[in-house]
C-alpha cells in the first residue's frame, strides 16, 4: 500500500490587509466627498459674504434696485435695470453668433477634417481660449470698431424703411455699442463651446454612425439623426459655459460697449453691462456706492445660477422626449 500525502493546510487569510483596504476605501470616499462639498461651501460663502456687504444698498429698495433705470451715485440712486438689459442683450448676441459657429467647427474637426490636420486645428482653437480678455478688447477697440462702423451705418440705411428693424438697427456714429460687444464676446466664447462640443461628439458610438450610413443616410442626415440627438445635453452644457463667460466678461466689454447708463432698443447704441460697470466704477466708489456695485455682482451671480438651473430642466425634458420617441 502507498501512503497518502497529508492534506495541504488552507492558505492563511490576511485579515489585517483586508481591514487596511476597508479603511483606505473609507478614507478615499471621505476625501472625494469633501472635495465635492468644497465647491458648494465656496459658492455658499461667496453668496453670503457678498449679500451681507451689498445689503445696505439693496435694503434701500430691493424692487427699485432691480427695476430702477436711474444710476446716480451722487444722489444715492441705484437702479440696475440698464446694466441687466445690456448684459442680456450682449450675451444673446454672443450666443446667436457663437453657438452655430462652434458646433460647426466641432463637427468639422470630428467628422470632416483629415485625421492629420485635426490636431493642428484643435491646437489653434485651444490657443484662442488662452488669449487674455484685454487683448480681445484692444483688438475690438483698435481694429474692429473702425472697420464695422461704416457697416453699421450702411445697414441702418438699408433697414430704415422697415418698421421694427429701423428701431433695432438705428443710425449710429460710433462702433462702441451693444452689437460690437456681442461680437467680441462671441469670439471669446467660441473656443470654450467648440472644445466641449468636440469632446461630446467624440462620445457618440461609432455603431450609431455606421448604422445610419447602412440605412442609406447622407453625412448630413447622419449628423442630424445620430450625432446631434445623442449630444444634445452636452451641447446645452457647453452653451451654458459659454453664456457664463459672456455674462461675466468685464474688461473686453468695457472697452467696446461705450459706457452709457441708459436703456436703448437700438443695438448700434452705446450701453453697459453688469460686469463692465463694476470694473469702470469700482476704483472711485465708496460707501453705499461700493455696496451697490457688490449688489450688482450678487444679482449677476443669481442670474447665472438661475439660467443654469433652467438649462438643466430643459435638458432633462428633452432627453425624456428623445427616449420616448426612440421607444
Strand order of the largest sheet: 1-2
CATH superfamily: MetI-like
Helix/strand/pairing category: mainly alpha
Percentage of residues in helical conformation: over 70%
Terminal-residue CA separation: 72 Å
Q: Count every beta strand, where a strand is a DSSP E run of 2 or more residues.
A: 2
What spatial form do the alpha-carbon principal axes imply?
A: globular
Distinct helical segment count: 13
User: How many domain modules?
Assistant: 1
- Averaging pLDDT over every residue, what do you get? 84
The share of residues in extended strands comes to under 5%
Q: Which spans of ≥5 residues are poorly predicted at pLDDT below 50?
A: none
Name of the CATH class: Mainly Alpha
What is the topological layout?
Layout: H1 15-59, H2 62-67, E1 71-72, E2 77-78, H3 81-112, H4 115-129, H5 133-159, H6 165-168, H7 178-202, H8 206-214, H9 219-230, H10 232-248, H11 251-256, H12 274-281, H13 288-326
Antiparallel strand pairs: 1-2
Amino acid at each position: 500500500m502507498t501512503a497518502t500525502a497529508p492534506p495541504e493546510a488552507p492558505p492563511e487569510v490576511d485579515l489585517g490587509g483586508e481591514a487596511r483596504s476597508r479603511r483606505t476605501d473609507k478614507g478615499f470616499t471621505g476625501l472625494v466627498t469633501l472635495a465635492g462639498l468644497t465647491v458648494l461651501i465656496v459658492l455658499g460663502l461667496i453668496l453670503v459674504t457678498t449679500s451681507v456687504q451689498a445689503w445696505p444698498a439693496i435694503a434701500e429698495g430691493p424692487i427699485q434696485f432691480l427695476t430702477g433705470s436711474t444710476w446716480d451715485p451722487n444722489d444715492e440712486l441705484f437702479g440696475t435695470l440698464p446694466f441687466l438689459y445690456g448684459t442680456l442683450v450682449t450675451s444673446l448676441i454672443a450666443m446667436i453668433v457663437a453657438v452655430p459657429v462652434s458646433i460647426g467647427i466641432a463637427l468639422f474637426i470630428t467628422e470632416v477634417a483629415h485625421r492629420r490636420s485635426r490636431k493642428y486645428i484643435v491646437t489653434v482653437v485651444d490657443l484662442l481660449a488662452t488669449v487674455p480678455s484685454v487683448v480681445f478688447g484692444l483688438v475690438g477697440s483698435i481694429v474692429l470698431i473702425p472697420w464695422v462702423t461704416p457697416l453699421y451705418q450702411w445697414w441702418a440705411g438699408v433697414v430704415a424703411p422697415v418698421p421694427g428693424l429701423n428701431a433695432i438697427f438705428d443710425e449710429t456714429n460710433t462702433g462702441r455699442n451693444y452689437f460690437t460687444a456681442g461680437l467680441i464676446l462671441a469670439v471669446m466664447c467660441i473656443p470654450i463651446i467648440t472644445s466641449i462640443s468636440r469632446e461630446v461628439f467624440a462620445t457618440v458610438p461609432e455603431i450609431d454612425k455606421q448604422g445610419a450610413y447602412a440605412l442609406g443616410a447622407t453625412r448630413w442626415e447622419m449628423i442630424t439623426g445620430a450625432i446631434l440627438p445623442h449630444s444634445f445635453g452636452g451641447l446645452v452644457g457647453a452653451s451654458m459655459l459659454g453664456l457664463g463667460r459672456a455674462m461675466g466678461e468685464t474688461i473686453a466689454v468695457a472697452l467696446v460697449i461705450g459706457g452709457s447708463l441708459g436703456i436703448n432698443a437700438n443695438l448700434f447704441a452705446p450701453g453697459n453691462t453688469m460686469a463692465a460697470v463694476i470694473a469702470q466704477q469700482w476704483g472711485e466708489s465708496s460707501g453705499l456706492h461700493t455696496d451697490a456695485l457688490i449688489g450688482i455682482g450678487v444679482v449677476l451671480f443669481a442670474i447665472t445660477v438661475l439660467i443654469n438651473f433652467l438649462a438643466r430642466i430643459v435638458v432633462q425634458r428633452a432627453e425624456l422626449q428623445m427616449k420616448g420617441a426612440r421607444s
